[in-house]
């Protein structure tokens, strides 16, 4: 059906307004048809036509596409009708003043206002639904259920109704609030969400739209699993702040993302102690352009530090972070583009800015890459950490918070071992500082704190973006091993816990985060394929490529020799680890860093790492030959 020409709509509007005016006269005369024979009706109709034509043209009432009529069109019609009749009323007042006779009875104008508004709005709605009926008469409509009968659910229903291309039929609402159950909302019945599975099956639902943010993650997973198993598409409604001009569009409805299902219950931390510690202080963040570092920067802003020094060697991501901060009208930051291994560069940062806090997120983290480049792992992960830690003591930093990884526990690869050595150095340096100045309370001590956690969702180079690209390309999706599992945490949650742990630490601790339940990567891949509306192993193949060099089947947060202590935060534990005497450890680490910097023998450097970290037993790596027979036996047992 083509769009009605504007002149047709204009003519209809004028014609309907004339008919309403005549009916208003008839109602005033108590349906005495003789009233239409009076000459004054003709004159008054011409006067009203003059007002209507002028205002209809001024407000462009005819310009809207009728099949997309919405609330704004209705308001425009009301204002035009009101001002037309109000203008006539003002003219009548002047006429009474000069002629002592009324042009028209005020009650006729009131009746005409109501009739015209209802008629002009109604015929548009009738045409709109007639168009919808005609265009979908021969198509099968998708049956839709909405989870959530609040404001968001109502907005979702109305957005679907206004979208002529949506081709859906609203069937039912689902609601947790039992006070709403059994009632009707815009003619659609509200059912209890407890019966969700039966209701979706019995009512042959094709699509479920989740229109509530109060749904617990566990329940959301159960619902999505049921829908995927029963070929029901699941969508979510974006946050209100993302709606276009405060209005929800059906184009904004999103398929459920795997990140939504892996999220745990949201943590909200606003620590008064953190505010006192960070407010009006200078903070150095290394690796500030990375996924973890940039989120730490975002969260630091709420504590209103005096200045955040953003250090990273990646030019473009650092520039992107700068643009983001400018959009937030943030001015309390300084850029420090450079390498944490460069001693002169790093010391210049400490000299110029005198940071009170250091959040050390800069590191090489990709396991296969570091297995190929052990010397770089040592130079950055160990050497960079040592340099920053030493300078933190020299320049009186209050707190040094190092971000480590679960791969540092019983490491099977160079990357994990390098992070474990960095952990050991930071702990040992703190203990040495305490022993050295234990009798001198005037010396300002630096509190060294380490945080250890697993994979974060959506981080640069993580498995989820990679799977998404493979699915979009038509597959196959490559998983290293059928049984490989990993812990996952969202970036905001991880960074919130980093800040919290950093504030509670007394120095020398390794804080371990509750990562929830590990996820089997193969199951993750299957669910992502299903969420894309495809079938695993039919539409998209899953292939197993074998474990990569240094890769584990299962990650650990504690090694066999470690226990934990509780803290006041249920998701943060303290790992009880062995501490090595500083003097000997410092010599051993220097003997690692120097040959790595000079690009000497890789084998001898990795051998030295294994001596320093006895639990470092290579897996699926060329460095397995360096393990003792006893160590190799341990791997085989696993």
Task: Write a structural description.
By secondary structure, the chain is an alpha/beta fold. The chain has three domains: 6-135, no CATH class; 142-256, Rossmann fold (3-Layer(aba) Sandwich), CATH 3.40.50.720; 272-625, NAD(P)-binding Rossmann-like Domain (Rossmann fold, 3-Layer(aba) Sandwich). Helices cover 47% and strands 14% of the residues. The chain is built from 21 helices and 22 strands. The strands form five sheets. It has a nine-stranded mixed β-sheet with strand order 10-9-8-11-12-13-18-22-21, with helices on both faces. β21 and β22 form a beta hairpin. The longest helix is centred in the first third of the chain and has 31 residues, at 106-136. The radius of gyration is 35 Å and the shape is elongated. 37% of the residues are buried. The mean pLDDT is 82.
Question: Could you give a short description of this structure?
Answer:
The protein has 638 residues and is α/β, with parallel strands linked by helices.
What is the average per-residue confidence, as pLDDT, rounded to a whole number?
82
Compute the number of helices. 21
Percent helix, as a range, is 40-55%
Number of domains: 3
Gap between N and C termini, in Å?
69 Å
Bin the strand percentage.
5-15%
CATH superfamily of the largest domain: NAD(P)-binding Rossmann-like Domain
Radius of gyration: 35 Å
What's the β-strand tally? 22
Largest sheet: 9 strands, mixed
Strand order of the largest sheet: 10-9-8-11-12-13-18-22-21
Uncertain ranges? none
